[in-house]
Amino acid sequence: MLGAIVASGLAMGAVYALVGIAYNVMFNASRAMSFTAGTVGMMGGVLGALFIGRFGLPVPLGLAATLAACGLFGVVTEIVAVRPVLKSLDQHLYVLSTLALALMATQFTAIEWSTEPQPFPRLLGGVGGVLDEKFWLPLAACAATIAGLEYLHHYTLVGRAFLAIAEDNYAARALGLPERNLRIAAFALASAIGGLAGFAAGELLLAYFANAQLLAFYGFVPVALGGIGNNRGTIVAGLLLGLLQQAANFIVGGVFASVAVFVVFAAVILIAPQGLLGGQRARRV
Amino acid sequence: MQPTRRSVVLSSAAALAAGAAGLRPSFAAAEPFKIGWPVTLTGPGSAPGLSFDLGVRYAVDRLNAKGGAGGHRIELVTRDTQGDPTKAVNIVQELISSEKVSAIFGPTNSGEALAITPIMARFGVPNVHAGTIDSLIDPVKYPNAFRIAPAGKQWDAALRHYVLAVRKWKKVGILGDTTGYGTTAVSDSVAGFKKDGGEVVYSATIDQTQADVTPQLLSMRKAGAEAIVVWSVSSGLEARIMNTRAQLGWDSPILGHPTMGSNDVRKLLDKPSNFDKVYVVGFRSCTRDASGKLPARTQAFIDEVRGKMDLKRAILFLVLIGVDGIDLLAKAVAETGSTSRKAIIDYLNTVKDFPGLFGTYSFSPTDHDGYQTTEVVMCAADSLKDGALAQAPGYD
Q1: Phi, psi of B278 (to 5 degrees)
Q2: Which of B10, B87, B241, B323 has the lowest CB atom count within 10 Å?
Q3: Which of A12, A54, A107, A116 is best to mutate for the B interface (most B CBs within 10 A)?
């Protein structure tokens, strides 16, 4: 019993953490919270099922095509929904523009794909039970993403440039960094990470348009809990959220499980408004 | 191919174009008989609505080809509620006040029905529906509402009879989704089993998007459930329950809502054998007997629509109810010669033994549950053919 709860809790937690990282990467590059993070998570599952399940592509090719398509959607997001409202960031218009784009993409998927959940193909096969691939694939994807981001940020020039614009984009621009191109790249990267979350969780969540809302919602919780922009906090909070949610499903079930999750969320936010690992941010006055 | 909004719009446009091209009979100057049709065509839980819609559109086309309802061309005003009670409320108000429909067939979702039934009653709009929640029929509160499908209590009774009397299983676990329908159905089912001497060892509601239902099934197995009862229309949740049962190496039977036997569930199964020992509520009018034959009326309908209607993707009994709902309303207009709301309600109150495809209906001013037969039976989910299932094992 405990094994099943831990396995599915960690798996869902890893998915929430990855979607949270997608939120963070976009936020760090633009200071705008893009609500398309859940949509690219949904697209990862749907496109994976399309490329591998329907078109019959090999898994590596299907994964690459899925991530490329999600990355492209990220570029479109930056151009269509974020760039036009960056000048009035303090009015938070990005909330409306990114939500609108997310809703359009979700409804388009419902119309063109299906309104019912569709099967996601088995990727590797193998054992069932708590060691089944549907449980460890999201965790593996999460670990690979963490390793990849650490390498990017600490060992590459582009990664350091990402950190620079995240820290102070005015200063970064003054130093000659191509802020716009870096922002486009960050949105592409974030959307690919969101797509990877949906792809890795395809067997758990199925290829279903309604997953967009679920992932947008539960993916945001670890961002708020871990500290906005803080990937380490997001990962810890995401995994805890997954475990708490599955435990609540087992202990109280039904709608009460969601209530339990959000009671904890509200309590943490009340105690630590900046998130578990978030620091106080200086504000220009 | 699964019907989508686009295919619905295209087929509607094609029907209109055909009508404009003179392929329909000419109608007298009588005003059209407008029937409102609020239906869940997209979104979670759209599977039943899509099947209903096949029957409704078939009946309207067939009746109009024969001259409509007593000379009144039937005009169907379809609106997709997307399974959202809030949207359904707005849609029904628009149908009543702007479209000025004479009658409404539907909705197809119990949560929506709970929200809009009082509105239709307030405006005195005749409403024929197939909602299963018992409280949707009350001739005093809702004198305009008539049901042409078994109430939830009849589904429950048939399932309980099969579990407790036919198969002699005593300990049951009951699951439902967290929609209005799911939570109501679970609490009604728990009360019913307890009343009939069954032992409910576990009951829970599960969010339709919950990715893993292992905790609930493990709890149920630990509690000693001999049968798993499921009340939901979510194909994703139903398939997860069946797949998880198999992964746990558990072979307790799963029994419940008719949508568990649909193709939408079948294609989500890890392997076809996960459909073993899954029994769904069915009806004699669309259930194959031991020799594999359907009742004559039903077989005649299937033969007529073969090649024109995709029954492989449909739930047959819902298609038949869709046909019956439109036929019944058309009969009211034909018999009274009027499309007035009051005339239709007055006529429906006098209907006696109306021979539909799904059932034979009777109403009175004090009883608006038209489908009063006890011919509700359990069927084997893995026996789907032309939208019809075979009776579950164990019956005499």
Answers
A1: -115, 120
A2: B10
A3: A116
How far apart, in whole angstroms, are the C-alpha atoms of residue B38 and residue B53? 10
Interface membership of A8 toward B (CB under 8 Å): yes
Residue A113 CA to residue A125 CA, distance in Å, equals: 25
CB contact under 8 A, B43 and A1: no
Gyration radius of chain A over CA positions: 18
pTM of the model: 0.76
- The tokens for B78 are 């379809």
| Tens-digit pLDDT profile for residues B250-285 | 999 999 998 898 888 999 999 999 999 999 998 989
Q: How many residues does chain A have?
A: 285
* Binary contact (A249, B235; C-beta < 8 A): no
Q: Are A204 and A11 in contact (CB under 8 A)?
A: yes
Q: What crossing angle do the helices spanning B180-195 and B110-123 adopt, rounded to 10°?
A: 100
Q: Who contacts A249 (Cβ-Cβ below 8 Å, separation ≥6)? A: A257, B206, B210, B215, B216
Task: Give the closest-approach CA distance of A282 to chain B in angstroms.
Answer: 39
Partner residue facing A250 (CB), from B46, B183, B219: B219
A214, A38 Cβ separation under 8 angstroms: yes
**C-beta atoms of B43 and A112 within 8 A:** no
Nearest alpha-carbon partner for A239 in A254, A221, A263: A221
Mean pLDDT value of segment B90-117:
94
- The predicted complex's ipTM stands at 0.81
Residue type, B311: L
pLDDT of residue B341: 97
Q: How close, in Å, is residue A129 to chain B by CA atoms?
A: 7
In this structure, are residues B148 and B130 in contact, taking their beta carbons and an 8 Å threshold?
yes
* Cβ distance of A116 and B236 shorter than 8 Å: yes
